[in-house]
TrEMBL record:
Species for this entry: Lentzea rhizosphaerae
Name of the protein: Helix-turn-helix domain-containing protein
HTH cro/C1-type domain: residues covered: 15-51
SMART domains, per database record: HTH_XRE
Domain of life (superkingdom): Bacteria
InterPro entries the UniProt entry points to: Cro/C1-type_HTH, Lambda_DNA-bd_dom_sf
Length: 115
């Protein structure tokens, strides 16, 4: 099972693939999207997560067919949902661990006070 980070990496790699397939470099793509070239670099190097609007702009700039645009937007939505779920699970695990530690400490204090 892949993590949300694994899926983000695969998604960024797919954005690079479609850009290259369109015969564009990062600067050309940025110009078509009305962005700074650094934004393309950050997205491609996984230092910035793209928004749905970014993906729409990107796919429009590379003149992707509508079916491809929707596939990429859906993929991004699923990554966002997975990331939120992942964070929730980690938060719950952390809370469970804290509760276990707190109970263990309370039990230790209780046994020390009883002695």
């Amino acid at each position: 099972m892949s993590t949300p980070d694994d899926r983000r990496i695969a998604f960024a790699n797919e954005l690079i693939r479609v850009r290259k397939k369109a015969g564009l470099n990062g600067k050309q793509l940025a110009e078509r999207c009305g962005w700074q070239a650094s934004k393309v670099s950050k997205i491609e190097n996984k230092r910035q997560d793209p928004t749905d609007s970014d993906v729409l702009d990107w796919m429009t700039a590379v003149e992707a067919p509508e079916s491809e645009v929707e596939r990429m937007r859906e993929w991004l939505r699923s990554i966002d949902i997975d990331r939120a779920s992942w964070k929730h699970q980690l938060h719950r695990a952390t809370l469970t661990d804290r509760t276990t530690v707190d109970r263990s400490r309370a039990a230790s204090r209780s046994s020390v006070c009883s002695s």
